[in-house]
Each structure stands twice: as C-alpha cells, then as structure tokens.
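Milestone 3.1: sequence recovery, worked example.
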C-alpha cells in the first residue's frame, strides 16, 4: 500500500540522499540499527516521547538504497544486508512494546511471527521462481507495519491509561489489528505466489 507511494517520492529521496553520497551505503545500513536500539532503551526506561522520536531515525533506512543507486554501489550483498537488518530493526521495535510492559507478550510474539513470515514468503517465492517474479503484494508491508507501531505508542501516550476495550489497552488493540492485517497479507501472498509460480 504505502510502498506504492515510494516511486513517486524517489526524486525527493534522491535529493535527501545526495549529502550522504560519500558514505558507504552498507555503513548507512548499519547506522540504521541505531534508532531501533535506542527505541528499545527508551521504552525500557519509560521515556516514551524520546522513543517515539526514534521512528524518524528510519530516515537512514530509506536513503541507504538511494545512495547505493546514486553512487553505483548496488550489490547483492548490500541488498542482503539491508533486508536482514530490516528484520532486526522490526523485531526490536515490536519487542520493545513487550519488554516495556505495554503490550502482552502473546500479541508481541504473534506480530513478530507474522511479520517475519510475510518477508519469508516473498523471499522464498521469488527464489523458487529464480527471480522471474516480484511478490510485492499484500494489504500490509513494512511501511504500514511501522506506521501502526508508531500510532500504537502515540495513542498510548496521549490517551488515558484506564481506557480499555475487553481488557486490552489502545496499543494492544492496534497490535491485534496489526496481527489481523498481517495474517491477511500472509494469505494474499500464498495464493498470489501459487498463481505466479504456476505461470513462471
């Protein structure tokens, strides 16, 4: 969904990437882990406002690929590193809610499992098709997932803590929504992959 907007923003992203063009793209990918790590630290220390600001640090994760393309340094290893660190970053953001006691661990585990499974299905299907297909389908991808995590913390900060629905706080309700949307995406990718692999 939001991923489809990215091509329209490519000129803006490329402009923002120019000042970083002297830095190796892989270094930028490594630096992209800093915000999620500090997010976890701030969540554990109940500094939720500072934790919320760490989402804006994902800027580094956006420009590493742009820098690689602008400088002609796109490599298979760079793509592997970027994808791998995205999974680590997502896991840190999601786990932080559980470690901070905001969201119960059952929901955290479900969201992590489905998030990783969404990525795995795409990677495995594209590998099976030997690169002949691109399985970028589904109601929720990484951009939407991070947006919902941002909103989960934002609403948890803004709304009174005694607001509960069926004993779930607002952050947990968003995690439930995220779980449902992720499950739908898993099914979408499975059935789409089935059709595409038959044709490839």
């Amino acid at each position: 969904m939001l991923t489809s907007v990215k091509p329209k923003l490519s000129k803006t992203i490329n402009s923002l990437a120019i000042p970083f063009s002297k830095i190796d793209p892989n270094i930028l990918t490594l630096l992209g882990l800093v915000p999620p790590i500090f997010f976890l630290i701030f969540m554990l220390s109940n500094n939720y406002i500072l934790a919320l600001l760490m989402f804006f640090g994902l800027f580094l994760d956006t420009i590493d690929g742009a820098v690689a393309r602008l400088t002609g340094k796109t490599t298979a290893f760079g793509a592997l590193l970027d994808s791998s660190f995205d999974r680590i970053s997502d896991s840190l953001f999601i786990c932080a809610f559980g470690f901070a006691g905001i969201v119960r661990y059952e929901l955290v585990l479900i969201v992590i499992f489905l998030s990783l499974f969404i990525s795995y299905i795409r990677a495995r299907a594209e590998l099976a098709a030997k690169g002949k297909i691109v399985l970028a389908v589904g109601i929720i991808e990484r951009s939407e997932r991070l947006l919902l995590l941002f909103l989960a913390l934002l609403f948890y900060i803004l709304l009174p803590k005694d607001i509960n629905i069926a004993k779930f706080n607002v952050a947990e309700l968003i995690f439930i929504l995220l779980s449902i949307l992720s499950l739908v995406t898993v099914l979408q990718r499975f059935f789409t992959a089935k059709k595409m692999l038959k044709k490839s």
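Residues 25 and 54 are 20 Å apart (CA to CA). The chain has a mean pLDDT of 89.
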